[in-house]
Description:
Layout: H1 8-47, H2 51-75, H3 82-114, H4 119-148, H5 155-186, H6 189-213, H7 221-225, H8 234-263, H9 267-292, H10 298-323, H11 337-370, H12 377-431, H13 434-454, H14 460-465, H15 469-472, E1 477-483, E2 488-493, E3 499-503, E4 506-510, H16 513-529, E5 535-539, H17 545-549, E6 558-563, H18 567-572, E7 589-593, H19 596-602, E8 607-612, H20 628-636, E9 638-649, H21 655-668, E10 673-679, E11 682-691, E12 697-698, H22 699-707, H23 712-719, H24 726-730, E13 733-736, H25 737-744, H26 756-761, H27 770-778, E14 788-789, H28 792-803
Parallel strand pairs: 5-6, 5-8, 6-7, 8-9, 12-14
Antiparallel strand pairs: 1-2, 2-3, 3-4, 9-11, 10-11, 10-13
Helix pairs in contact: 1-2, 1-3, 1-4, 1-5, 1-6, 2-4, 2-12, 3-4, 3-6, 4-12, 5-9, 5-11, 8-9, 8-10, 8-11, 8-12, 9-11, 10-11, 10-12, 10-13, 11-12, 12-13, 20-21, 21-25
Amino acid sequence: MRGPATNPSADATGRRLLPVLFLLFVGSGCAALIYEIVWLQLLQLVIGSSAVSLAVLLGTFMGGMCLGSLALPRLLSPRQHPLRAYAMLEFGIGVLGIMLWFALPPIARFYAGHAGHGLPAILLRGLICAVCLLPPTVLMGATLPAISRWIETTPRGVSWLGFFYGGNIAGGVLGCLLAGFYLLRVLDMEVATFVAAAINTVVAAAGFILAAFAPGPGPERDAEVQGVEPAPGSPWVYLAIALSGMCALGAEVIWTRLLSLLLGGTVYTFSIILAVFLVGLGIGSSAGSFLARTLSRPRLALGVCQLLLTAAIAWSAMMICKSLPYWPVDPSLSSSPWISFQLDLARCLWAILPATCLWGASFPLALAAVAAPGQDPARLVGHVYAANTIGAIVGALGASLVLIACIGTQHAQQLLVLIAAIAAILMFATGAPKPGGFFAALATVIVAIGLALSVSAVPWGLVAEGRNYAVKGDDGRLLYMGEGMNASVAVTETADGIRNFHVSGKIEASTDPRDMRLQRMLGHLPALLHPDPRSVLVVGCGAGVTAGSFVVHPGIQKIVICEIEPLIPRIVATNFAKENYDVIRDPRVQVVYDDARNYVLTSKDKFDIITSDPIHPWVKGAATLYTKEYFEMCRDHLNPGGFVTQWVPLYESNPGVVKSEIATFFEVFPGGTIWANDESGKGYDIVMLDQAGPTKINVDDLQARLDRSDYTDVGVSLREVGFKSAIDLLGTYGGRASDLQPWLRGAEINRDRNLRLQYLAGMNPNLYQEEPIFDDMETYRRYPKDLFIASDATKAALVVAIERGKTGRQ
Length: 810
């Protein structure tokens, strides 16, 4: 199998080594996926997790793979031993993986010191990603072309190339599940990095050992591959496989958005979707490799594969939007996350496996379509792999940055059907006899148009209710639905007039009294406790109610709202204009469309108040706004005497998650306090609060402030949510760090380098234990004599309110 000039003994040795090389590629793929998950997570902490940041990140990652596949055949002579070259690449990947782990902190400091906003910031993000990702990903992209020189470009040899590709993907499945469900859940990113590097080292050592016993190509190998051109019509095959890659990654982006609505956007959901995608690619690659051995017209087979993809894409679209949402699945019936994961896996397999198998089969069929006897296998693999990767880059960036936001997931999937049809037509037109090719192309056009028209829009109830849609259905009436660059959002109204803002399949804000109370507590508490607040940073716009709470405070001069999804301030918040005092149109308001963490990291501004109302911590990416390092950044951006508040949900959570959130906050703010937004004395959610400096609350002065004429609107705003006096508001006091330490003992601290919270919270998003959590926490609540300053009468009333856990809202 290794070169046409080898002797029979060497050829037999080469054939025996092929299964071993397959196993090495399994290990290589496993390490690569562990790195990918860790690096993407680490770099999102640095450059943010907005669609633009992720696009730059993914583009750089896949671009490095493409460069590596193209560069190796040109830079490495065919006389070099393929196994030794492969081993050196694997060893280099491991070394660079460890170096990147230690280099990232100074890179992050450089980024924080030089980043801003707009085009310069995007360019700097690209530079940071290139510095971090190009070296290791170029080596990753070069591994398949390097090892491909161990075989010949015969049908059997090309088949083994496809098997190597499939083995790499199989390893990727293992790495994805290992990282997502064990290494990062139980351990942390550092351990995951060293595990991946250890796998690289083992693979490299095996490669060096095999190279020592297996003879490599002789000096004549250079001459053998000189002047051997690819098969006729290869450019059309390259274009077809590029279109196939474009469809594959575009579909992955679109289907991940839709399936995360259905399954819940936890880190485990994303791991399951990625694993299923890779499983399909691996199965398809193996099947395509087997077929490539005997096919006389591989180009025609590639065309048939693309034609079948038009139907498979339409199938997936129909399953995701018209079938799976109506399966009788009630996520609250089981408290075991592992049962939920099994259901999620089954639904993903049912919906997207057919299409992914066909995309997997496309790669070995494309190799067979362009292969010519005597051709340099590295150039063959490198060119096909690069074409596929370039298409994948265009598909991923186009879907995430343009298609979903501009035309929606329905029309984006219709476009994917048509692109697959174009790839099929190219192959039929160039790979089939003239009359047959024409009729096949014509039939493809008719079939593709019909299938594209069958693709339906995502149900608005799925955007609103997400994983609970099968139980709740279309609850209320739709006021607005939009699919933005970063999230899908909806605004609905119930029969009793309550408006709800939904993002990514869950209610994020509403006009329900308990939600209104929480949203205004996040704003009014720090604004009233601060003696003279002037500047405010609001993390997360939501319905705009928290940000709007500052509008009525007379001293406020600047309100910065940081929101990752542009649709939310521009459209969603306007549906709550009465409740948020039309905050978006207030001249003091500046809306920053960026990842909030990235804004806090790079901003030079300081604020009197920073208030944060992020999405639930079980949603992938939200845990970065609950880390110790993030809280430290917030502390450093407070003016002297400034206040910080943070929302913590008790519902859709469990005691370990809540304790982790509170304990992490208290690590940075040891004088922090808890304020309860209970419901008739029962738990619902809380507000964490602290001040840059010692906190003293003069209750009588606070009431006198509320009684002033310039605070009339503030008083009205508080009374609308049940706070009739300062005692009512302060009666929500629920404890402080020093009192809660026994309860928090042993709690996990959520840090940037473990993001423990998202793995803890992602295991139990269907639990509703807010009442026992609140009751347990309430047992540690005591009246803080050194916190409140009050007259005897005021103190007596406040003690009663706090000790009874009541606020006078009954």
